[in-house]
Design goal:
Elements: E1 13-17, E2 21-26, E3 29-34, H1 47-61, E4 69-77, E5 82-84, E6 93-99, H2 107-112, H3 118-134, H4 147-164, H5 168-197, E7 201-203, E8 213-216, E9 219-222, H6 230-233, E10 234-236, H7 237-250, H8 254-268, H9 273-297, H10 303-324, E11 331-335, H11 342-353, E12 356-359, H12 360-367, H13 387-406, E13 411-414, H14 420-433, E14 437-441, H15 446-459, H16 468-476, E15 488-489, H17 495-509
Helix pairs in contact: 3-8, 4-5, 4-9, 5-9, 5-10, 7-8, 7-9, 8-11, 9-10, 11-17, 12-13, 13-14
Length: 510
């Protein structure tokens, strides 16, 4: 397979190897061949099985990367003189033919090089929400997605990791994490059952980390989903999302993790996922800790390599422990007309505080069966923007905020909140939940407001539909919060100053 003459118009062939496959890079294509292995969790031992899983790999990955995964092709001839292509009945092996991409475009490298931008994170969040909404759903009678199917691999991680990481400090860390995991499984068991009944167990990607995404032409493509084990793929969509969130955290990009989570929530509407998310974050980190331990147990490492693998395992254990730590919840709401910077400022805060943002524009549209970027074609004060629709929107945001605060999440409510009677229920909710409350005032001069609203409306890339007519109506009826409400003025503050000011308010209220 290394002979250039096997391939059309190729002068050199490179080979990559993983523990389960070989990839031959020839010209504009890559040919992936599965090793004849049976590792228990996968079985490629027979030619017929390798063909089946090659076909599955193409089928599954074309859901997200149709331009990369081309087809499954036979390799004929002999081991000494192979021929790419030919009659399937003459095949001695099977390969997945893929369009080749640059290794430096893998997202783990893009992040390390400082090339990964917020717009790329937003694109991933939107794409994953769209993907999860459209894939096959596990049947009620399937074994996938039950509390037992969630518990078994999670608890097996600890059994295996104890054998791999015998040091006292690692055993103590595993004790803490296993105790938390068992308690969490008991707590979320009703949620796991409910999510299965609601169709949240789907034929997911299963291996969503940055090394399985590429950035090409400023577009992110997700590839290399799991084809070899149904149980690894038929999972809660939250478990799928948790992998990339964990990976971003581990790679030192927690702000991107929080941003990605919020985009996914806005486009999926699956806020109930937050109840089970900590469990799956810990699970994903524990899998990586175990994998590092498995590699450490393999012979032939230099002392430096062994030390690096042990450090890696401990980093994942520490990350898993951080995922178990409760974050101090608080409730922040905004006040300001369209274009005053509410979404910009709350975007800063959701990254800084690992908060969940509820945008009225998004919540309103979902109430009426619309996606965040769908145009409702509503007139001023008409359609989905009537007084009755606004009342429903604020009631739904209050309901969601109460739910999220109850789960222990900081909550940001991004809405105009023009009247005190709209703000009061949220202030009362914070008091009932015994969490700090912050009113963030957002202001700008009228000309700046008009320029921002006009530019945003023209772009068509935001959930907000307010145009200049809406803005003028808001300005005509604008009432600033009373001094007794102690609003924090956020406009004009840098990201650092805004974060510090909000933190001071939160800590002062505790």
């Amino acid at each position: 397979m290394m002979a250039p003459g096997l391939y059309p118009q190729v002068t050199t062939v490179d080979r990559l190897e993983t523990h389960i496959s070989y990839v031959f890079l020839a010209g504009e294509y890559a040919y992936k061949i599965k090793k004849p292995l049976n590792l228990g969790f996968l079985d490629f031992s027979e030619l017929s099985r390798r063909r089946y899983f090659c076909e599955e790999e193409v089928r599954l990955n074309r859901r997200l990367a149709p331009d990369i995964y081309l087809d499954c092709i036979p390799i004929c001839g002999s081991a000494e003189n192979p021929q790419i292509g030919g009659d399937a009945q003459d095949a001695i092996e099977w390969a997945v033919r893929m369009r080749r991409f640059r290794q430096e475009d893998l997202l783990d490298r893009v992040l390390a090089d400082g090339r990964l931008q917020p717009r790329h994170i937003d694109a991933i969040g939107r794409r994953l929400a769209q993907f999860h909404a459209g894939i096959a759903v596990a049947g009620d009678d399937s074994a996938f997605g039950t509390p037992q199917s969630a518990a078994d691999p999670a608890l097996e991680n600890f059994r295996h990791s104890r054998e791999l990481l015998p040091a006292a400090q690692d055993q103590a860390a595993l004790d803490r994490l296993e105790t938390w995991t068992r308690a969490e499984l008991e707590r979320i068991q009703p949620a796991l059952r409910r999510r299965k009944a609601e169709g949240r167990i789907r034929e997911c990607h299963g291996d969503l980390h940055l090394g399985n995404m590429i950035l090409a032409g400023d577009e992110v493509t997700i590839f290399d989903c799991i084809e070899f084990n149904d149980a690894f793929r038929w999972i809660d969509v939250t478990a799928d999302l948790a992998f990339v969130l964990m990976d971003l955290e581990q790679r030192g990009a927690p702000a991107y993790a929080h941003r990605l989570l919020n985009v996914w929530l806005e486009f999926s509407g699956d806020y109930d996922a937050l109840e089970v998310l900590p469990f799956y974050l810990v699970y994903r980190a524990m899998v990586r800790a175990k994998v590092a331990g498995i590699r450490l147990a393999q012979p032939g490492h230099s002392p430096q390599a062994a030390a690096a693998l042990l450090a890696e395992a401990r980093e994942y254990l520490a990350l898993a422990q951080r995922f178990t730590a409760p974050r101090p919840p608080f409730l922040l709401i905004t006040h300001g007309v369209s274009g005053s910077g509410k979404s910009t400022l709350t975007g800063v805060l959701l990254e800084a505080f690992a908060a969940i943002r509820l945008r009225s524009d998004v919540v309103r549209k979902r109430l009426f069966g619309l996606g965040p970027l769908d145009d409702s074609h509503s007139a001023v004060a008409g359609g989905i923007y009537t007084a009755e629709a606004s009342t429903l929107t604020y009631e739904r945001m209050l309901e969601l905020a109460a739910r999220l605060l109850g789960l222990g999440y900081p909550v940001l409510v991004d809405a105009t909140f023009p009247q005190d009677w709209q703000r009061t229920p949220f202030r009362e909710l914070a008091a009932e939940c015994n969490v700090p409350f912050v009113l963030l005032a957002c202001t700008a001069d009228p000309q700046t407001l008009r320029e921002r609203v006009a530019a945003r409306h023209a772009s068509g890339h935001d959930a907000a539909e307010a145009d200049l007519a809406v803005l003028e109506q808001q300005l005509a009826h604008y009432v600033a919060p009373a001094a007794s409400e102690q609003a924090l003025e956020g406009s004009g503050l840098s990201a650092e100053a805004l974060t510090a000011a909000v933190r001071a308010r939160i800590e002062g209220a505790e």
